[in-house]
Amino acid sequence: MTDPPLTAGRAQQAGFPSTQWSVVLAANRKESPQAAAALEAICSAYWYPLYAFVRRSGQSPHDAEDLTQEFFRQLLAKDWLQAVDREKGRLRTFLITALKHFMAKEWRRASAEKRGDGRAHVPMDAALAESRYAAEGASQLAAEAAFDREWALTLLDLTVRRLEAEFAAAGKGGDFVVLKSCLAASHGSIDYAAVAARLELSEGAARVAVHRLRKRFRALYREEIVQTLPDGENLDEELRYLARALG
């Protein structure tokens, strides 16, 4: 008998953390410092897929940076969360829908004075964004397909960072450097003898280390996705969607 699909609500019962996006949704009808901080953290984590969407919509790198920054400034300053219920609640859906509305009707390009006037500012590395934009092939996709692909890649990147941080906290940062290439490799392509030699372990122990790494990665990846869903949304459905976006 197979397990039922894991939803965001079931995931929390199974030990997943309370989601940032759920914190924001729960407080979208009242002022909440916790929700405001969570939303700002979300914006800092997920700005790049929106930047890629703006670039594929025909904007230059400079204008895409300005537009993305001004979008987040207004998102953090205004009551756009009042529309979340109409936009099905998922962070991915909410952000791309809000960005489209902003670009079509509401945007005012941010000036240097506006950036420096003390209003909310989401850190963006324009040079890194452009190099990533070129390297990951976003420029070859339609705007929405580019957004979906970069959203999925951002989730993977956030997961790898969390996993790396766990290894570093355990004093095993060097092990992660050796093992991380095994994350994307198929089982048949991993050279366990080479991994064992670099880790100074037996080959059997190296196999266990790789298995544990991949298992922990899958758990963290699911946690990252859960953090973008409202309570009750089906996690397996979102996993399938992201897999299609990457494929």
Describe the structure.
- Helices cover 66% and strands 0% of the residues.
- It has 247 residues and is an all-alpha fold.
- It has two domains: 116 residues, no CATH class; 108 residues, no CATH class.
Euclidean distance between termini CA atoms: 29 Å
In terms of DSSP E residues, the strand content is: under 5%
Element-level helix/strand string: HHHHHHHHHHHH
Outline type: globular
Number of domains: 2
The biggest sheet amounts to: none
Mean pLDDT equals 81
Unreliable spans: 1-17, 115-119
How large is the count of helical segments?
A: 12
Number of strands: 0
Task: Please state the structural category.
Answer: mainly alpha
Fraction of residues in helix:
55-70%
Q: Give the radius of gyration.
A: 20 Å
